[in-house]
Amino acid sequence: MSKRLETVFAGVTFKNPVALASGTCGFGKEFNEYFDIQKLGGLCSKGLTLHPCPGNDGIRVWETPSGVMNSVGMENPGIQHFIDCDLERMNALDLVNIVNMGGHSEEDYLEGVALLNQYPLDLLELNISCPNTKAGCMSFGLQAEVARDIVRKVRAVCKHKLVVKLSPNAENITALARACEEEGADGLSLTNTYQAMAIDIKKRKPVFENLYAGLSGPAIKPISLRMVHQVAHTVSIPVMGIGGIATWQDAIEFIMAGASVVQIGAANFMDPRLCLDVIDGMEKFLEDNHIETISEIRGIV
Protein backbone atom coordinates (compact mmCIF):
# COMPACT_ATOMS: atom_id res chain seq x y z
CA MET A 1 0.00 0.00 0.00
CA SER A 2 1.35 3.41 -0.97
CA LYS A 3 1.26 6.44 1.29
CA ARG A 4 -1.46 8.13 -0.77
CA LEU A 5 -3.96 7.55 2.03
CA GLU A 6 -1.71 8.56 4.91
CA THR A 7 -3.46 11.18 7.04
CA VAL A 8 -2.41 13.31 9.99
CA PHE A 9 -5.19 14.10 12.46
CA ALA A 10 -4.39 16.42 15.37
CA GLY A 11 -0.75 15.44 15.12
CA VAL A 12 -1.50 11.70 15.02
CA THR A 13 -0.62 9.80 11.84
CA PHE A 14 -3.13 7.33 10.37
CA LYS A 15 -1.78 4.98 7.69
CA ASN A 16 -5.17 5.44 6.03
CA PRO A 17 -8.21 7.51 7.05
CA VAL A 18 -10.51 4.58 7.88
CA ALA A 19 -11.41 3.61 11.45
CA LEU A 20 -13.93 1.29 13.04
CA ALA A 21 -16.57 3.33 14.87
CA SER A 22 -17.25 3.09 18.57
CA GLY A 23 -19.94 0.68 19.65
CA THR A 24 -19.67 -1.51 16.56
CA CYS A 25 -16.38 -3.35 17.06
CA GLY A 26 -16.00 -3.93 20.79
CA PHE A 27 -12.29 -3.62 21.53
CA GLY A 28 -11.18 -5.14 18.22
CA LYS A 29 -10.87 -8.81 19.16
CA GLU A 30 -13.95 -10.01 17.28
CA PHE A 31 -13.11 -8.25 14.03
CA ASN A 32 -9.56 -9.56 14.13
CA GLU A 33 -11.04 -13.02 13.55
CA TYR A 34 -12.21 -11.87 10.09
CA PHE A 35 -9.19 -9.85 8.96
CA ASP A 36 -6.00 -8.28 10.22
CA ILE A 37 -7.37 -5.13 11.83
CA GLN A 38 -3.91 -3.59 11.64
CA LYS A 39 -4.74 -2.86 7.99
CA LEU A 40 -7.08 -0.18 9.33
CA GLY A 41 -6.08 3.36 10.06
CA GLY A 42 -7.70 3.33 13.48
CA LEU A 43 -9.98 1.60 15.95
CA CYS A 44 -12.42 3.39 18.22
CA SER A 45 -13.23 1.43 21.36
CA LYS A 46 -16.66 0.64 22.62
CA GLY A 47 -17.96 3.55 24.68
CA LEU A 48 -16.58 3.36 28.20
CA THR A 49 -18.00 4.75 31.42
CA LEU A 50 -16.35 5.19 34.80
CA HIS A 51 -18.25 2.25 36.30
CA PRO A 52 -19.42 -0.96 34.58
CA CYS A 53 -22.75 -0.45 32.85
CA PRO A 54 -25.22 -3.30 32.11
CA GLY A 55 -26.94 -1.38 29.32
CA ASN A 56 -30.63 -1.18 28.57
CA ASP A 57 -33.23 -3.86 29.16
CA GLY A 58 -35.49 -5.29 26.46
CA ILE A 59 -34.96 -5.23 22.72
CA ARG A 60 -31.68 -3.57 21.77
CA VAL A 61 -31.51 -3.80 17.99
CA TRP A 62 -34.26 -3.21 15.43
CA GLU A 63 -33.89 -3.15 11.65
CA THR A 64 -35.40 -0.32 9.67
CA PRO A 65 -35.30 0.50 5.94
CA SER A 66 -31.70 1.31 4.97
CA GLY A 67 -30.63 1.35 8.57
CA VAL A 68 -30.67 -0.10 12.04
CA MET A 69 -31.83 1.23 15.39
CA ASN A 70 -30.08 0.37 18.61
CA SER A 71 -30.77 0.87 22.29
CA VAL A 72 -27.76 -0.84 23.81
CA GLY A 73 -27.36 1.83 26.46
CA MET A 74 -23.54 1.93 26.58
CA GLU A 75 -23.12 -1.54 28.03
CA ASN A 76 -19.44 -1.80 28.93
CA PRO A 77 -17.11 -3.27 31.58
CA GLY A 78 -15.97 0.10 32.94
CA ILE A 79 -12.76 2.05 32.44
CA GLN A 80 -10.64 0.18 35.00
CA HIS A 81 -11.51 -3.21 33.48
CA PHE A 82 -10.62 -1.84 30.05
CA ILE A 83 -7.28 -0.61 31.37
CA ASP A 84 -6.55 -3.97 33.00
CA CYS A 85 -7.67 -6.20 30.14
CA ASP A 86 -7.65 -4.39 26.79
CA LEU A 87 -5.66 -1.15 26.70
CA GLU A 88 -2.18 -2.67 26.47
CA ARG A 89 -3.27 -4.98 23.64
CA MET A 90 -4.89 -2.12 21.73
CA ASN A 91 -1.85 0.10 22.17
CA ALA A 92 0.34 -2.67 20.74
CA LEU A 93 -1.61 -2.73 17.47
CA ASP A 94 -0.21 -0.94 14.43
CA LEU A 95 -3.13 1.46 14.16
CA VAL A 96 -4.42 4.55 15.94
CA ASN A 97 -6.01 3.68 19.29
CA ILE A 98 -9.05 5.90 19.85
CA VAL A 99 -10.63 5.43 23.27
CA ASN A 100 -14.27 6.51 23.49
CA MET A 101 -15.48 7.66 26.89
CA GLY A 102 -18.94 8.77 28.01
CA GLY A 103 -20.45 9.66 31.34
CA HIS A 104 -23.69 9.96 33.25
CA SER A 105 -22.52 13.05 35.14
CA GLU A 106 -19.80 15.68 35.11
CA GLU A 107 -18.03 13.82 37.91
CA ASP A 108 -18.03 10.63 35.82
CA TYR A 109 -16.26 12.38 32.95
CA LEU A 110 -13.63 13.99 35.14
CA GLU A 111 -12.88 10.85 37.16
CA GLY A 112 -12.76 8.79 33.98
CA VAL A 113 -10.28 11.18 32.39
CA ALA A 114 -8.15 11.12 35.54
CA LEU A 115 -7.93 7.33 35.27
CA LEU A 116 -7.05 7.34 31.56
CA ASN A 117 -4.47 10.09 32.07
CA GLN A 118 -2.25 7.50 33.74
CA TYR A 119 -1.92 5.42 30.57
CA PRO A 120 -0.87 5.99 26.96
CA LEU A 121 -3.41 6.17 24.15
CA ASP A 122 -3.53 8.03 20.85
CA LEU A 123 -6.82 9.91 20.99
CA LEU A 124 -9.55 10.25 23.60
CA GLU A 125 -12.99 10.57 22.01
CA LEU A 126 -15.27 12.36 24.44
CA ASN A 127 -18.79 11.08 23.90
CA ILE A 128 -21.33 13.79 24.69
CA SER A 129 -23.81 12.48 22.14
CA CYS A 130 -25.08 8.96 22.88
CA PRO A 131 -28.92 9.01 22.66
CA ASN A 132 -29.40 5.66 24.38
CA THR A 133 -28.92 6.60 28.01
CA LYS A 134 -31.46 8.05 30.39
CA ALA A 135 -28.96 10.45 31.96
CA GLY A 136 -25.76 12.10 30.81
CA CYS A 137 -24.05 11.78 27.42
CA MET A 138 -26.43 13.37 24.92
CA SER A 139 -27.72 15.84 27.51
CA PHE A 140 -24.24 17.40 27.46
CA GLY A 141 -24.20 17.69 23.68
CA LEU A 142 -27.47 19.35 22.73
CA GLN A 143 -26.76 22.97 23.64
CA ALA A 144 -23.54 24.76 22.80
CA GLU A 145 -23.05 26.36 26.20
CA VAL A 146 -23.62 23.10 28.07
CA ALA A 147 -21.11 21.37 25.81
CA ARG A 148 -18.72 24.26 26.26
CA ASP A 149 -18.79 23.81 30.03
CA ILE A 150 -18.06 20.07 30.05
CA VAL A 151 -15.36 20.35 27.35
CA ARG A 152 -13.67 23.18 29.26
CA LYS A 153 -13.59 21.13 32.45
CA VAL A 154 -12.38 17.97 30.73
CA ARG A 155 -9.73 19.86 28.72
CA ALA A 156 -8.38 21.37 31.93
CA VAL A 157 -7.46 17.93 33.27
CA CYS A 158 -7.08 15.78 30.15
CA LYS A 159 -3.50 14.93 29.16
CA HIS A 160 -4.48 13.25 25.89
CA LYS A 161 -5.42 14.58 22.47
CA LEU A 162 -9.14 15.30 22.85
CA VAL A 163 -11.73 14.62 20.15
CA VAL A 164 -15.33 15.56 20.98
CA LYS A 165 -18.08 13.42 19.44
CA LEU A 166 -21.05 15.56 18.45
CA SER A 167 -24.75 14.77 18.35
CA PRO A 168 -26.85 15.34 15.21
CA ASN A 169 -29.67 16.12 17.64
CA ALA A 170 -27.92 19.32 18.73
CA GLU A 171 -29.81 22.60 18.55
CA ASN A 172 -27.10 24.14 16.36
CA ILE A 173 -24.33 21.83 15.19
CA THR A 174 -21.95 24.57 14.04
CA ALA A 175 -22.36 26.59 17.25
CA LEU A 176 -21.68 23.40 19.18
CA ALA A 177 -18.57 22.70 17.12
CA ARG A 178 -17.24 26.22 17.60
CA ALA A 179 -17.76 26.01 21.36
CA CYS A 180 -15.78 22.76 21.55
CA GLU A 181 -12.97 24.24 19.47
CA GLU A 182 -12.84 27.38 21.61
CA GLU A 183 -12.54 25.27 24.76
CA GLY A 184 -9.52 23.37 23.47
CA ALA A 185 -10.76 20.30 21.60
CA ASP A 186 -8.05 18.95 19.29
CA GLY A 187 -10.61 17.52 16.89
CA LEU A 188 -14.28 16.66 16.41
CA SER A 189 -16.14 13.54 15.32
CA LEU A 190 -19.69 13.53 13.95
CA THR A 191 -22.30 12.39 13.79
CA ASN A 192 -23.45 10.01 16.44
CA THR A 193 -26.77 8.23 15.88
CA TYR A 194 -30.06 10.06 15.38
CA GLN A 195 -32.73 9.81 18.03
CA ALA A 196 -35.54 7.72 16.56
CA MET A 197 -38.49 5.53 17.46
CA ALA A 198 -40.22 2.29 16.50
CA ILE A 199 -43.68 1.03 17.54
CA ASP A 200 -44.87 -2.58 17.70
CA ILE A 201 -48.39 -2.21 16.31
CA LYS A 202 -49.44 -5.67 17.50
CA LYS A 203 -48.45 -4.98 21.07
CA ARG A 204 -49.48 -1.33 20.74
CA LYS A 205 -46.37 -0.17 22.50
CA PRO A 206 -42.88 1.18 21.71
CA VAL A 207 -40.35 -1.42 20.60
CA PHE A 208 -37.70 -0.08 22.98
CA GLU A 209 -38.10 0.04 26.74
CA ASN A 210 -36.08 3.25 26.70
CA LEU A 211 -38.73 4.61 24.26
CA TYR A 212 -36.28 6.18 21.81
CA ALA A 213 -33.21 4.64 20.19
CA GLY A 214 -30.33 5.62 17.93
CA LEU A 215 -30.72 5.32 14.16
CA SER A 216 -27.64 4.53 12.06
CA GLY A 217 -26.88 3.05 8.65
CA PRO A 218 -27.10 4.31 5.04
CA ALA A 219 -30.37 6.14 5.75
CA ILE A 220 -28.58 8.85 7.74
CA LYS A 221 -25.67 9.41 5.37
CA PRO A 222 -26.94 12.46 3.45
CA ILE A 223 -27.78 14.32 6.66
CA SER A 224 -24.51 13.38 8.37
CA LEU A 225 -22.59 14.41 5.25
CA ARG A 226 -24.29 17.81 5.33
CA MET A 227 -23.40 18.30 8.99
CA VAL A 228 -19.78 17.25 8.46
CA HIS A 229 -19.55 19.74 5.59
CA GLN A 230 -20.98 22.52 7.75
CA VAL A 231 -18.71 21.80 10.69
CA ALA A 232 -15.53 21.21 8.68
CA HIS A 233 -16.01 24.59 7.01
CA THR A 234 -16.69 26.30 10.35
CA VAL A 235 -13.79 25.14 12.55
CA SER A 236 -10.04 24.96 12.03
CA ILE A 237 -9.52 21.71 13.94
CA PRO A 238 -9.78 18.38 12.06
CA VAL A 239 -13.00 16.40 11.73
CA MET A 240 -13.80 12.69 11.70
CA GLY A 241 -16.83 11.96 9.52
CA ILE A 242 -19.33 9.36 10.72
CA GLY A 243 -22.80 8.37 9.63
CA GLY A 244 -24.02 5.86 7.09
CA ILE A 245 -20.73 5.18 5.32
CA ALA A 246 -21.06 1.85 3.52
CA THR A 247 -18.88 2.17 0.39
CA TRP A 248 -15.59 3.71 -0.66
CA GLN A 249 -17.58 6.28 -2.62
CA ASP A 250 -19.31 7.33 0.61
CA ALA A 251 -15.94 7.71 2.30
CA ILE A 252 -14.60 9.87 -0.54
CA GLU A 253 -17.68 12.09 -0.25
CA PHE A 254 -16.98 12.67 3.44
CA ILE A 255 -13.34 13.50 2.68
CA MET A 256 -14.39 15.95 -0.04
CA ALA A 257 -16.84 17.49 2.44
CA GLY A 258 -13.92 18.21 4.77
CA ALA A 259 -13.40 15.14 6.96
CA SER A 260 -9.82 14.05 7.60
CA VAL A 261 -10.78 10.58 8.86
CA VAL A 262 -13.95 8.50 8.52
CA GLN A 263 -15.39 6.03 10.99
CA ILE A 264 -17.47 3.11 9.74
CA GLY A 265 -20.03 1.54 12.05
CA ALA A 266 -23.36 -0.07 11.14
CA ALA A 267 -22.16 -1.26 7.71
CA ASN A 268 -19.72 -3.59 9.45
CA PHE A 269 -22.69 -5.67 10.61
CA MET A 270 -23.52 -6.39 6.97
CA ASP A 271 -19.94 -7.26 6.07
CA PRO A 272 -17.22 -7.35 8.75
CA ARG A 273 -14.55 -7.00 6.05
CA LEU A 274 -16.16 -3.95 4.48
CA CYS A 275 -13.50 -1.53 5.76
CA LEU A 276 -10.88 -3.29 3.65
CA ASP A 277 -13.01 -2.74 0.52
CA VAL A 278 -13.35 0.92 1.45
CA ILE A 279 -9.59 1.33 1.89
CA ASP A 280 -8.84 -0.44 -1.41
CA GLY A 281 -11.51 1.53 -3.25
CA MET A 282 -10.19 4.85 -1.98
CA GLU A 283 -6.65 3.92 -2.96
CA LYS A 284 -7.73 2.96 -6.48
CA PHE A 285 -9.77 6.16 -6.85
CA LEU A 286 -6.70 8.23 -6.07
CA GLU A 287 -4.54 6.22 -8.46
CA ASP A 288 -7.08 6.34 -11.31
CA ASN A 289 -7.47 10.09 -10.91
CA HIS A 290 -3.73 10.77 -10.56
CA ILE A 291 -4.14 12.18 -7.06
CA GLU A 292 -0.91 11.94 -5.09
CA THR A 293 -2.34 12.26 -1.57
CA ILE A 294 -5.78 12.14 0.00
CA SER A 295 -5.24 15.64 1.38
CA GLU A 296 -5.54 17.05 -2.14
CA ILE A 297 -9.28 16.38 -2.19
CA ARG A 298 -10.05 17.09 1.46
CA GLY A 299 -12.63 19.83 1.81
CA ILE A 300 -12.72 20.68 -1.90
CA VAL A 301 -16.52 20.89 -1.94
- The CATH topology assignment is TIM Barrel
Task: Note the quaternary state here.
Answer: single chain
CATH level-two architecture? Alpha-Beta Barrel
What is the CATH top level name?
Alpha Beta
How many β-strands, per DSSP?
16
Strand order of the largest sheet: 3-4-7-8-9-10-15-16
Strand content: 15-25%
Largest sheet: 8 strands, parallel, barrel
CATH superfamily: Aldolase class I
CA radius of gyration: 18 Å
How many structural domains in the coordinates? Answer: 1
Helix content: 25-40%
Distance between the termini: 27 Å
Instruction: Categorize the overall geometry.
Output: globular
Low-confidence stretches: none
Would you mind describing this structure in some detail?
- This protein has eight helices and 16 strands.
- The chain is of the alpha/beta class.
- The protein has one domain: Alpha-Beta Barrel (TIM Barrel), CATH 3.20.20.70.
- It has an eight-stranded parallel β-barrel, surrounded by six helices. A four-stranded antiparallel sheet has the order 5-6-14-11, with no helix packed on it.
- A hairpin with a 2-residue loop joins strand 1 (7-9) and strand 2.
- The mean pLDDT is 95.
